[in-house]
Amino acid sequence: MIDKETKEFRNLGVGKIFTCGSKKLKVSESEWEDCDDCIFNGPFIPCEVLQELGVIPQCNAEERKDKKYIIFEEVEDEIKN
Hints:
16% helix
């Protein structure tokens, strides 16, 4: 059985920011199943594996409660003056 916190993370809302390793990532909506601008698009571990391990939220609309396609974008820390 999956706990409530895990379910919430798997469906982290658009615009939310989370930490993955040393990077801050933003959940961004994609118009369709297009991974071109996603930080995890490349010759790395498939995102499905990272999702199963609980490292990143779901990105496929079929797996999300909000039925949105998601990509993950790196965000920079804000500069404080």
